[in-house]
Amino acid sequence: MRKAPYPTFLTPPKIDTHNESSNAPSACWEILDALAICRTKFGLTSASITVLRALLSFLPKTQDQRSDPFLVWPSNDALAKRADGMDERTLRRHLARLSEARLIERRGSPNGKRFALRFKNAVVTAYGFTLSPLFVRKFEILETAEAMRLESDLRDIERAQILDHLHRLGTQRLPTGEPILSAESDREIRKQLRRSIQANELVNIKKSLADLVQSCALEIELVSASNSQNDRHHQKTDKESLESVSDYQNELSVVSSNIDEARTKTGVDNLTLEDCLEAASESVAFSPEPVRTWRDLIKLGETLAPMIGIGSELMDHVRRAMGPLAASISVLCLVQRSSKISRPGAYLRALALRADAGEFSLNSLVRSAKRSRFAAVN
User: Cα–Cα distance between 264 and 255 in angstroms, integer?
Assistant: First the structure.
C-alpha cells in the first residue's frame, strides 16, 4: 500500500545550493564588524549593533531545511539577555531602527508573537525577524566600511601633517621677532583637531598652514637678502633721471590703454583691486583722491615711493623687473609694513632680484601685508 504524501505545508522546502547567500551565516561576524565601523552611514548607533549581534547569535550553527535559514524568533526576554541586559523599551527602539535601515525584516504572526511550528523536530513555519536583508547587502556594507577606513587613514595623515606645520611655525619667528602664528590661533587649530572633523576641512586647514609656512619662509629669505644687498649698495634718493621719468610715462600710458594685458604680464591676474586696497589700507589713506582703478593705484605707488626712501633709479629697475603695476603694489605693501621693515629700499631691490629670477610671488607679499594689517587691528 502506497504511503500518502505529507500535506504541502509540512513538506520540508529545498534550499538552492547554488545561491551564494545560502553560505552567508558563516560570514555574519565579518559583516557585523564591518557594519560597526560604518554604522553611522546606515543611521545606527553602537546600541543598534549590540541588538543586531544578539539577533545573529540565534542563527543556527548549521543550516537546516527551512525556506529562510536567516529567520530567528527569540522572545524579548531572551533577546534582552544577549543584548547586555538592555531594557525592553530600548530594545524595541533599536529593532525598529534596524528595520528602517533595511537590515532586518519582521515576519509577524497573526497574534504578534514570535514562534516556530515544528514537525518531527523540523521547523516548518516560523515568525520573528529575518536577517536575510543583512546578508543580501553584505558587499555594500563591506565596501562602505573599507571606504570609511580609508577616509579615517587619510584624516590621520592630514592631522599629522597639520601638527608638523604647527611645530615648524612654533619654532620660527618673523624678522621682527613676532611669532608667525599666534598662541591663540595655535590653540584653536589644535582644538579643532581633537573634534570629529571632515577630511575636506582638514585639507583646508593644512593648505592654509602650508601657505603660511611658505609665505613666511619667503619673507625671512627676502629680509636676509635685503640686508646683504644693503651692505653692498647705497641708494641715492635725491638723484632724478629725466630719461627714467620719460620711460615710466610711456609704460604708464601702455598700462592705461590695456590694463588687462599689463596685469597678466606682471603676474597679478588673480588679484583684484579690492584685494590690494584691503591689504594696503594705510597706504591708500595717503591718496588725496579715491583709488578706483589700477591706474590710480600705479600713480599712488609712484607718489609714495620717495616717502620711504626709494629713488627713481631703483623704481626704474623694479618696474623693468616686474612691471609697473606689480612695482606699485609692492611699494604700497612696503608702506603698509614700514614699521617692521627698517630698510625698504634694500627689501624692494631683493624683490626685484627675485622677479628677475622668476621667483617673485606678489600674492605672498600681499598676504603678508594683509596679515600685518589684521595683527595691528587686533
Answer: 11
